[in-house]
Amino acid sequence: MSMKWFLRIVLIVAVLVLGALLWQWLVADPGLVQIRVRGYVIETTVVVAVAALLLFIAALWLLAWLLRAPLRWLAGRRQRRTRHAFAQAELRLREGHWARAEKLFLRAAEDSDFRVPALLEAAQAAHTRGDDAQAQTYLTQLLDDPEGRRLVALERAREAQVAGQPEQVLQHLEPLAPLPPQGHLLRLEALRRMTGRSPDALLELAELQRNQAVDARQLAGLERGLIIDAIDEATDGAALVRFWDGVARPHKRDPEFIHAYARRSNQLSVADPAALIEAQLRHDWNDDLARLYGQLDQPEPARRRRQAEQWHKTHADSVGLNVALARLNLALGERHQAHDYLDRALAVANDAEAWELLGEACRQQPERARAALVNALRAQRGLPALAMPGDESQDERLGLFSVAEERSEHGVPRLPDSGSR
């Protein structure tokens, strides 16, 4: 037997014992109640008087219940009709019957419990069918209700967002503190559209995560976009470094964030970001970072070329690295070597930047330079490259590099398919 049942049995026994003791006490002296009214005298015991009083109260409650039954039936019928009207209005709204849905929502709004949501939905239906004035009329009717005012402000903030007015969004959301989850999402989107406000938008992510307003994948996408936007919007080196110092450590190892930070650092001349790229590529190869390595300002192009040549021993088929090496050789005046690396890159992919650099490498040959720039434009548009003039053996020469060179972990060249032997 469980403790729960044991306690119940003890309680029942205690009640029976107390009842028996009380009965013995009343039998010894049942008491006397006397009521005298206009010469009539009613005498009874206390037990009978208490029982009669309880019966009288029960009779009054039953009479009141019977008198209120028709009113309750009418109220229930009205609520059922209201719920039915609201449900039918939602269905008509989803089907696209805007006018019919609007009428049903207005019918549902006659019930105070449905007034706020019904008028909001009626405003949406009127707005969808193109009657913005009527939609604003419905929203204005909600301003006399505290909850309605908050929802109207939220709805107008959403309309301002659709209209591309982020300042108006923030203005509508300002009196709603504390903001609901949708308010935080609207504020985040508004701040994201405003130049220089991406760091402020990042602060809204914590509220969205706490309220579970968006799923984890969408939250990660928002965070990634906002971090890149904040890096691109940094107006000076101090602001960029301060923001980067506040970025979480896992993000500082993300190639996309490193690429954005290195590019912006180079633009603002904060510091040489080459060391950051070199450290990342030692642990995790990334073709875009290798390409950016050649695009940075070149205070020491010879040293960077040596570093890139070391990478080339194990990543000879990297288009970005070959383009970077070509750019570094052009910076050192080594046009012939730059031409070789560009041939390697173009043998792997029809790369617009490689064609553009080839045009620069062929500056002394105007026809070839012009053709290379034309191919750069075609590559940007996704069109195949045209043959270079005066180079009949181009296909054969490019074919030398069509198969990427394979090397072992020690940097020793090996024949194709020899790794499986």
Provide keyphrases for this structure.
421 residues, mainly alpha, Serine Threonine Protein Phosphatase 5, Tetratricopeptide repeat, elongated
What does this structure look like?
This protein has 421 residues and is mostly helical. The chain has a domain at 272-421: Alpha Horseshoe (Serine Threonine Protein Phosphatase 5, Tetratricopeptide repeat). It is built from 20 helices and four strands. It has helices at residues 3-28, 46-95, 98-108, 115-128, 132-140, 146-162, 166-173, 181-193, 198-211, 216-233, 237-246, 255-268, 274-283, 287-295, 301-312, 319-331, 335-348, 352-361, 366-380, 394-399; strands at residues 33-37, 40-44, 406-407, 413-414. A two-stranded antiparallel ribbon has the order 1-2. Helix 3 packs antiparallel against helix 4 (115-128), helix 15 runs antiparallel to helix 16 (319-331) and helix 18 packs antiparallel against helix 19. The longest helix is centred in the N-terminal third of the chain and has 50 residues, at 46-95. Residues 393-403 and 416-421 have low confidence and may be disordered.
Short description:
The protein has 20 helices and 4 strands.
Question: What is the CATH H-level superfamily of the domain at 272-421?
Answer: Tetratricopeptide repeat domain
Q: Any low-confidence stretches, pLDDT <50, length ≥5?
A: 393-403, 416-421
C-alpha geometry: elongated
Provide the CATH top-level class of the domain at 272-421: Mainly Alpha
Helix content: 55-70%
Q: Write out the strand line-up for the largest beta sheet, numbering strands in chain order.
A: 1-2
First-last Cα distance: 74 Å
Query: How much of the polypeptide forms β-strand, as a percent range?
Result: under 5%
- Shape-level CATH architecture of the domain at 272-421: Alpha Horseshoe
Written as H for each helix and E for each strand, in order along the chain, the element string is HEEHHHHHHHHHHHHHHHHHHHEE
Number of strands: 4
